[in-house]
Automatic annotation (TrEMBL), chain A:
Pfam families: IBH1_N
Gene Ontology biological process terms, A to Z: regulation of DNA-templated transcription
All residue ranges annotated as the IBH1-like N-terminal domain in the record: 18-78
Keywords: Nucleus, Transcription, Transcription regulation
Subcellular location, record wording: Nucleus
Signal peptide span: none
GO cellular component: nucleus
Main location: nucleus
Species per Swiss-Prot/TrEMBL record: Brassica campestris
InterPro entries per record: bHLH_AtIBH1-like, IBH1-like, IBH1_N
UniProt protein name: IBH1-like N-terminal domain-containing protein
TrEMBL record, chain B:
Organism: Brassica campestris (Field mustard)
SMART domains, A to Z: HLH
UniProt GO MF annotations: DNA binding; DNA-binding transcription factor activity; protein dimerization activity
Protein name, UniProt field: BHLH domain-containing protein
Top-rank taxon, per record: Eukaryota
Region of interest called Disordered, as start-end residue ranges on this chain: 115-161
PROSITE patterns xrefs: BHLH
Alphabetized UniProt keyword annotations: DNA-binding, Nucleus, Transcription, Transcription regulation
Gene3D superfamilies named among the record's database cross-references: Helix-loop-helix DNA-binding domain
Family annotation (CDD domains): bHLH_AtBPE_like
Keyword Aminoacyl-tRNA synthetase: no
InterPro entries the UniProt entry points to: bHLH_dom (IPR011598), bHLH_ZIP_TF (IPR024097), HLH_DNA-bd_sf (IPR036638)
Residue stretches making up the BHLH domain: 175-225
Record localization: Nucleus
């Protein structure tokens, strides 16, 4: 509510952090025996995609960002594993009570679509959502670059 | 729920104006005409003295609440405002009466929060004249709140003030000093600031000025990025069964052997190369100690290297656990 806000922090780690995380998850995948059979391409695709997102979430700041927490939690739920996160200072549930304060129906339609796209967007206020979107965009573009480089590097000559 | 009789009922009727017919409304108004200094619809009220006298006679020495008519104005009622606003009570201008009438008319078109009205009504059932008019003033103020938005804080505060005193806060004309509206304005500024930030991020958005168009662009961009990730993962999936995929194992092996501190330095130049559009160089030079692809070692050795405990020392154990537990 104060006019003096902290500057928006959307620093994203360098490309090598993303690369390392992604490569590690890929090699973990490789270690699975069923991974390399040529028939099940769809499974592989899904697994790689999931690996990409999870490694991105991890590289981008792990549990310090709302969207990465949501992403990791979602991935863990798919595996029916419960991943414990360290408690943050501000509880996300507090924001839910203030949902009534978010008005302006025109803006809310768009914000709704954005919330569906960005992981963890459901519990955020609109301003927080924007911050998370900015960081998410940066991380996504970084991840895309990493994957592009990998694909290019591995492409048949 | 109309369980009250007497003039309190009229007040109730009066306030649920949105459902009432014109006739009922006029009847309610007529019943209150005899009350001094009450009725503002006929802008006959001298905004200054009568209200003061009225309140003074009621034993209260509080300034009035006149809310703004504009869409985002709100009224805050808080005990802390008494001392501030009592100094402003003398600044009451006649113009405030006009706002009051306007607000009054606005309120007629709105739904009220019946619950609070009833609570007030029941409490004031015993003291009819002064109290009911005061409650009507209060309810009018509450109507202004309804006009804008319901927030739990304001309702709670009014309930408190209802039990203790009637706290009226004067708002300046053309500006809302309400804490809620100030918060609302601050929030809007925050959002616009972030929109500008996002505009810098998303390429090709300089021309778009509206918030809606901007949000559309952002959504499209996020969707396109996600689609790109999917597409690239498909490509990787087709590529991965090949032997060349062992590159990552070799890379990991080299990473393990090299201390972490060297990594940023070694990988830094490739970024500049990538920026100038040479992805192949990045792949090659990023893997610093790495042989070119044609000289890839056979699969068994690097895999073995990577699988033993070396990797655990390299990475955080929880990172390892996380990736293995998530199955990626």
């Amino acid at each position: 509510m104060a006019s003096a806000d902290k500057p928006i922090n959307t620093d994203v780690p360098e490309k090598d952090v993303f690369t390392l995380h992604f490569l590690q998850s890929l090699s973990n995948l490789r270690r699975q025996n069923t991974f390399n059979s040529p028939e099940k391409t769809n499974d592989r695709v899904k697994k790689i995609k999931k690996a990409a997102y999870v490694s991105m979430a991890r590289a981008a700041g792990g549990t310090n960002r709302l969207w990465s927490r949501a992403l990791l939690r979602r991935a863990a739920k798919e595996n029916s594993k419960v991943v414990r996160f360290p408690r943050r200072k501000k509880r996300v549930t507090c924001l839910r009570r203030r949902r009534s304060n978010r008005r302006d129906p025109v803006e809310e339609e768009e914000a709704e679509r954005l919330r569906n796209l960005v992981p963890g967007g459901g519990g955020m206020e609109t301003s927080k959502l924007m911050e998370e979107t900015a960081h998410y965009i940066k991380c996504l573009s970084m991840q895309v670059k990493v994957m592009q480089c990998l694909v290019d590097g591995l492409a048949p000559k | 729920m109309m369980m009250m009789n007497g003039e309190a009922t009229e007040a109730e009727l009066f306030l649920n104006c949105a459902d009432m017919s014109v006739l009922e409304r006029q009847r309610a108004q007529l019943n209150y005409h005899h009350l001094p200094g009450f009725f503002s619809n006929s802008s006959t009220i001298n905004g200054g003295e009568i209200d003061d006298g009225f309140l003074a006679s009621a034993g209260l020495d509080l300034p009035e609440i006149y809310g703004e008519v504009h869409g985002d104005a709100r009224i805050s009622v808080s005990p802390g405002n008494i001392t501030n606003e009592s100094g402003n009570s003398k600044k009451r201008k006649f113009g405030c009466v006009d706002t009051e009438t306007k607000v009054f008319n606005e309120k007629k078109k709105m739904m009220m929060m019946d619950r609070e009205v009833e609570v007030e009504e029941e409490e004031e059932k015993s003291k009819i004249t002064e109290q009911s008019t005061k409650s009507i003033m209060k309810m009018k103020n509450k109507a202004k709140k309804e006009q804008n938005s319901c927030s739990n804080d304001s309702s709670k505060v009014t309930k408190d003030s209802q039990r203790t005193d009637y706290i009226h806060v004067r708002a300046r004309r053309g500006q809302a000093t309400d804490s809620h509206s100030i918060a609302e304005r601050a929030r809007r500024e925050k959002i616009s600031e972030r929109m500008k930030f996002l505009q810098d991020l998303v390429p090709g958005c300089e021309k778009i000025t509206g918030k809606a168009g901007m949000l559309d662009e952002i959504i499209n961009y996020v969707q396109s990025l996600q689609r790109q990730v999917e597409f690239l993962s498909m490509k990787l999936a087709t590529v991965s069964p090949r032997l060349d995929f062992n590159i990552d194992d070799i890379f990991a092996k080299e990473v393990v052997s090299a201390p972490m501190m060297n990594l940023p330095n070694s990988v830094m130049p490739p970024h500049m190369m990538v920026n100038s559009g040479y992805p192949h160089d990045m792949v090659n030079s990023g893997y610093v100690h790495f042989n070119p692809m044609q000289q890839v070692v056979t699969s068994s050795d690097p895999l073995a290297c990577f699988n033993n405990g070396q990797s655990a020392t390299m990475w955080d154990s929880d990172v390892q656990n996380l990736y293995s537990s998530l199955g990626v």
